[in-house]
Amino acid sequence: MTRPADAAINELKELLGPKGFSMARDVLDLHNHEARGKFDGKADLVLFPATTDEVAKAVAICAAHTIAIVPQGGNTGRCGGAVADQGQVLLNLKRMNKMIELDTRDFTATVEAGAILKTLQDAAAAYDLLFPLSLGAEGSCQIGGNLATNAGGLNVIRYGNTRDLVLGLEVVLPDGSIWNGLSKLRKDNSGYDLRHLFIGAEGTLGIITKASLKLFPQPKHVASAWVAVPSPEAALDLLALARRNSGDAIAAFELMSRFAHDTSVTHLANITRPLVSETDWHVLIELTSSRPHDDLNSVLVDLLSDAVDAGFASDATVAQSDAQRKNLWALREGIPEAQGFEGASIKHDVSVPVSKVPDLLARGITAAMDLIPGIRPCPFGHVGDGNIHFNFSQPVDMDKADYLARWEDLNRAIHDIVADLGGSISAEHGIGRLKRDELVHYASAEKMKLLRSIKGAIDPDNRLNPGKVV
Ligand code: FAD
User: Fold this and answer.
1) Whole-model pTM above 0.90?
2) Are the beta carbons of 112 and 100 closer than 8 angstroms?
3) Measured in angstroms, how far is the CA atom of residue 430 from the centroid of ligand 1?
4) Distances (CA, A) of 345 to 79, 379, 390
5) Ligand 1 pocket test target in 96, 141, 166, 199 with most atoms within 8 Å of CB
6) Are 2 and 86 in contact (CB under 8 A)?
7) Which of 282, 365, 392, 444 is 20 to 30 A from 207 via CA?
8) What domains are defined for the chain?
9) What pLDDT does 1 receive?
10) What SS3 state is found at 165?
């Protein structure tokens, strides 16, 4: 495919002006970049519209010239969803970043889709409210990207995925028309719930331009602990105990293997080992409450003491200061970066029913070791949601390229186990381009037929993010 026709380029330039349009090499390089290095972005132009109307008109121009559009947010996605082929146009929402309204009676925020997640969190906090979506990329990912990928993150156990936080959307459709579904209603059973078609669609059905989102009371108390647990089974027992004994105040419950823990402690600067005890599994547990007089530290200490008595934990430390709490989170969130110091990594973002996590870990580790002797499993993740980032570092003495050549074999072995346990091959990062063939392999014929029917009904000419998801 060659670059878009000059006539189309001129119309887009005229519509969007110098701030809304770029063909400069340095700008293209930035937006064509794909962090995992698995795909080559090849767009020849990138658009930066400033309003919904501009998005709609740009989409209509592209439709008239049969040009495909790839929506792009903060470009932090992990599945190649925001990568354009040659001849396609990138449409980045970063200039549409306004906080339109924060309503302290409705407990809602209405925002433009290009708003950075952290900006929304801070805007809500200024009103003593919480937007609970929280993930490692929150300083750069955009709300539109979060919605398009139905992002998960650290607080799903308490507040749900992005999908659970959405009341309404405004979306530009593939023909350039605008669906205004920017409702703040908490109850609306008037027909199919259209917003859910666009959430998690990874930009294949429409370009999300605005959203109205749920807010919650800002927590007044936070208590966090690092816990040594003897096994993943024990971690689940601890989770159940903690849910019951804390009045379900759990906001995060993260499991890490010893390798994941040691990698982070060894390679990252300024991280202190929270516990001296040697154990194969670690848990980071966090309770929050917005009730002014709660004493969550005592609740946590009591429940951890019960857990030790019951054999669900062998040791634990409760953070006594904000600095200590930040250290626990830096250790946990630094694992992907630290793992880079251990050579190549083959990754799986998978989920199973919470009760099946121990089976997944045991069977997955055995299968990987049989397939690639010396492989170093590095599982960690949001175990309270049944979501494990099942990463594997290369054997110490193996060539990096030889190891990465086994990517698909290992994926198949792990995904087969996930499927057998009733799980999903994409828990939170989506399908994008990376897992498109895996989706076809594991989804039922009926599911694929429905997915393709929906795509065909809304985007019959395959103009929005072609080649992604379906
Ligand atoms: P992009 O990467 O730009 O795009 C992602 C997809 O959404 C693409 O298919 C794109 O076409 C589409 N898209 C973007 N904007 C729009 C729009 N306005 N309308 C329609 N389609 C659009 N993800 C999690 O779920 N949980 C995590 O815990 C998590 N942690 C992460 C930690 C780090 C350090 C990093 C780098 C990433 C992490 N991610 C996580 C992945 C990523 O941050 C999320 O998928 C995020 O939601 C993507 O947002 P983005 O704005 O960067 O979107």
Assistant:
1) yes
2) yes
3) 9
4) 15, 11, 10
5) 141
6) yes
7) 444
8) 6-92 (3.30.43.10), 99-217 (3.30.465.10), 221-334 (3.30.70.2190), 343-428 (3.30.70.2740)
9) 60
10) helix
